[in-house]
Design goal:
mainly beta; twelve-stranded antiparallel beta sheet
């Protein structure tokens, strides 16, 4: 108890006033100007006031759409629910990504932006399905690089182009390119329709004997 009272008295003691720093003498030939009574001196580290000469952004006119115009090669994203910030957005439920001829659908997707708020990459998860022209791919995960137009599908991926079906460990499609690249691939190609059974020979009809009928 005594130690507590001593500490309390020590903390309650008045702090001696520190001497104000001396004002440096004015340069020869100059006259020091004293601050006006009531003038406020800005504190060090205080935020600077806004420039009065910069006008605020104008308000949009009533009925004017905020959508961008004259976009070239836009990335169209849609989903049941979207959350995001300046760096990325998370889309869930019936997710669809449309970029030129590439159409990607999945259960969940994360879109990443650059500084001008342009989509640079999308990462899809769950029931990924992609279509680009006559090429199709599907899997559990996909990574699409927007600037290069490269789509990489993983997670038991499979691809199809025309009558060719391919499975492997990784499927790679390039936007607008007819090639399909598959790692550790297994290829199945559909053959033309045929009624012949492999290993059998078609029978030739019997030739009738001259002057009589065939038995």
């Amino acid at each position: 108890m005594i130690e507590f009272l001593v500490m309390a008295l020590f903390l309650a003691q008045p702090v001696p006033a520190q001497a104000a720093p001396a004002t440096p003498p004015a340069a020869p030939g100059t006259q020091a100007v004293a601050p006006k009574p009531g003038a406020l001196t800005p504190k060090p580290g205080a935020p600077k006031p806004l420039d009065a000469g910069t006008p605020p952004a104008p308000l949009p006119a009533p009925g004017t759409s905020l959508a961008p115009v004259d976009l070239r090669n836009p990335v169209d994203l849609s989903a049941d629910h979207v959350t995001g910030d300046r760096a990325q957005a998370v889309l869930t439920g019936n997710v669809r990504v449309k970029h030129q001829t590439m159409d990607i659908r999945c259960d969940k997707m994360t879109a990443y932006y650059n500084q001008p708020r342009q989509v640079t990459r999308v990462v899809c998860a769950g029931n990924v399905r992609a279509v680009d022209g006559d090429r199709q791919a599907r899997g559990e995960r996909a990574d699409y690089d927007v600037p290069s137009g490269v789509l990489v599908v993983t997670g038991s991926p499979e691809a199809r182009q025309g009558n060719t079906y391919v499975t492997g460990t990784k499927v790679r499609l390039v936007l607008g390119n007819e090639r399909v690249e598959v790692e550790n691939a297994r290829i199945l190609v559909e053959s033309p329709n045929s009624t012949a059974v492999p290993g059998t020979r078609k029978k030739t009809p019997a030739t009738p004997k001259p002057g009589g009928t065939a038995p």
